[in-house]
């Protein structure tokens, strides 16, 4: 009985232990809390893959009042996530959240701040999922071990201009039925200087993700041997 109560409490703690993107770093330089970011009203996940909240989280269709960071082509961007407005004293994203980490980029039609990210505009530039099936180590375990951080190098062949960068952590601990998968999304506004002339493949978010995707509705506690994240292949520049 006592064990049952404790595990029920543990489950409740996992369910409530949500998180948001709070910082980006540009080539190792911390830009400051909530700077260059579209900040959602709370740390709850998005669970409806057809919602425009899937683009840049709740209230994320515009970045009015949000600074846009100028970054050099080929910059190394580090995203940093936390459960609450504190960097220490708790797991960054809570160990119960298991799943992939992905990053997408979309070129703004005019300014990044006014761009809503709708349509077939997103290019996947990073994806990490089930890293080790034997130990069941997920990309999220690495993010937790790194104090909430993961990094991506922006392909230097992308043209100069203003972009939204969209990082996503999908927590799959209750994903065996839909809706269940939890989408944690953070969007940063950047202005790439330098760059090239690549025209990468693109998908729509929402649009490309389906409730039936094997990376979205999945029982991860069933000795999973491999995992396919939604959204297709990474474009490496
Ligand atoms: C990007 O920056 C992070 C944090 O400073 C660092 O750990 C990582 O090695 C860098 N990646 C590359 C490819 O330079
Ligand atoms: C974007 O960067 C370019 C340099 O490539 C600069 O001239 C321009 O002012 C920047 N725009 C914004 C909005 O920061
Ligand atoms: Cu949570």
Automatic annotation (TrEMBL):
Q: Which InterPro entries match?
A: AA9 (IPR049892), AA9_LPMO (IPR005103)
GO biological process terms on file: cellulose catabolic process
What reaction is this protein's catalytic activity? [(1->4)-beta-D-glucosyl]n+m + reduced acceptor + O2 = 4-dehydro-beta-D-glucosyl-[(1->4)-beta-D-glucosyl]n-1 + [(1->4)-beta-D-glucosyl]m + acceptor + H2O
One Gene Ontology cellular component term attached to this UniProt record is: extracellular region
Q: Which CDD domains match?
A: LPMO_AA9 (cd21175)
List the Pfam families.
AA9
Principal location class: secreted
EC number in record = 1.14.99.56
Query: What keywords are annotated for this sequence in UniProt?
Result: Carbohydrate metabolism, Cellulose degradation, Disulfide bond, Polysaccharide degradation, Secreted, Signal
Q: What domain of life?
A: Eukaryota
Q: Which family does it belong to?
A: Belongs to the polysaccharide monooxygenase AA9 family.
Which PANTHER family does the entry link to?
A: ENDO-BETA-1,4-GLUCANASE D (PTHR33353:SF17), PUTATIVE (AFU_ORTHOLOGUE AFUA_1G12560)-RELATED (PTHR33353)
Q: What is known of its domains?
A: Has a modular structure: an endo-beta-1,4-glucanase catalytic module at the N-terminus, a linker rich in serines and threonines, and a C-terminal carbohydrate-binding module (CBM).
**Biological role:** Lytic polysaccharide monooxygenase (LMPO) that depolymerizes crystalline and amorphous polysaccharides via the oxidation of scissile alpha- or beta-(1-4)-glycosidic bonds, yielding C1 and/or C4 oxidation products. Catalysis by LPMOs requires the reduction of the active-site copper from Cu(II) to Cu(I) by a reducing agent and H(2)O(2) or O(2) as a cosubstrate.
Protein name stated in the entry: AA9 family lytic polysaccharide monooxygenase
Lineage at the top is:
Eukaryota, Fungi, Dikarya, Basidiomycota, Agaricomycotina
């Amino acid at each position: 009985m006592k064990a049952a109560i404790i595990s029920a409490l543990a489950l409740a703690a996992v369910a409530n232990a949500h998180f948001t993107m709070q910082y980006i770093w540009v080539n190792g330089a911390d830009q400051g809390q909530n700077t260059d970011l579209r900040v959602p009203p709370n740390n709850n996940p998005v669970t409806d893959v057809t919602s425009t909240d899937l683009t840049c989280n709740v209230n994320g269709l515009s970045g009015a009042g949000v600074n846009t960071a100028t970054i050099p082509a080929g910059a190394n961007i580090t995203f940093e996530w936390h459960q609450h407005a504190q960097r220490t004293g708790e797991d960054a994203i809570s160990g119960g959240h298991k799943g992939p980490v992905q990053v997408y980029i979309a070129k703004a039609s005019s300014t990044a701040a006014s761009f809503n990210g709708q349509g077939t505009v997103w290019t996947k530039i990073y994806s990490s999922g089930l890293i080790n099936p034997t130990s069941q180590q997920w990309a999220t375990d690495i993010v937790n071990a790194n104090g909430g951080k993961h990094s991506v190098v922006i392909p230097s062949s992308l043209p100069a201009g203003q972009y939204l960068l969209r990082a996503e952590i999908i927590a799959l601990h209750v994903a065996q039925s839909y809706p269940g998968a939890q989408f944690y999304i953070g969007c940063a506004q950047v202005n790439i200087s330098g760059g090239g002339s690549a025209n990468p493949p693109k998908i729509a978010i929402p649009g490309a993700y389906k409730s039936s995707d094997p990376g979205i509705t999945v029982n991860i506690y069933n000795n999973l041997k491999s995992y396919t994240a939604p959204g297709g292949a990474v474009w490496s520049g």
